[in-house]
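hey
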């Protein structure tokens, strides 16, 4: 059963006929509402993230420690310790809010400069598109939903300067 589904997903991804489904609305006990992709969509988004990172690798800063192969948290901490004596002040930032504030139209325009595969661009748009987090477009909203797609937002977001 799984092999058939895997082959079907790969085939649809490869020929450009895979479309992300609508995110499922989940109400939490605390009263918050979140949106979740289906398990298959999450898998496709993970593959998409890997494709983006591979194709963008030559253009990504080595200081983007959150990306695979960029030394991770250890590398970031060592870099801070190494450079700390040179500075009197430091600044902590909220990266999650940063990615949520990106104008995704501008991000997609920049990605088109680096990614020429229409299938990848179409899926990126579907992930980044402005929506309410419940699969519905929000007219006039230029900032898309990055909840649940953080790896893709990060891989693409490093181009947003």
């Amino acid at each position: 059963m799984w092999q058939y589904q895997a082959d079907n997903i790969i085939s649809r991804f490869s020929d450009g006929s895979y479309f992300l489904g609508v995110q499922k609305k989940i109400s939490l006990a605390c009263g918050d509402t979140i949106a979740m992709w289906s398990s298959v969509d999450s898998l496709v988004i993970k593959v998409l993230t890997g494709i983006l990172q591979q194709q963008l690798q030559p253009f990504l800063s080595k200081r983007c420690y959150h990306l695979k192969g960029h030394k991770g948290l250890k590398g970031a901490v060592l870099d801070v310790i190494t450079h700390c004596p040179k500075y009197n002040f430091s600044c902590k930032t909220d990266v999650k809010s940063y990615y949520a504030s990106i104008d995704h139209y501008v991000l997609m325009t920049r990605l088109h400069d680096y990614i020429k595969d229409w299938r990848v661009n179409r899926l990126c748009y579907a992930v980044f598109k402005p929506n309410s987090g419940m699969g519905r477009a929000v007219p006039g909203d230029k900032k898309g939903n990055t909840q649940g797609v953080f790896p893709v937002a990060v891989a693409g977001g490093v181009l947003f300067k």
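The helical segments are 2-15, 39-56, 72-83, 95-100, 104-114, 118-128, 150-157. The chain has one domain: 2-157.
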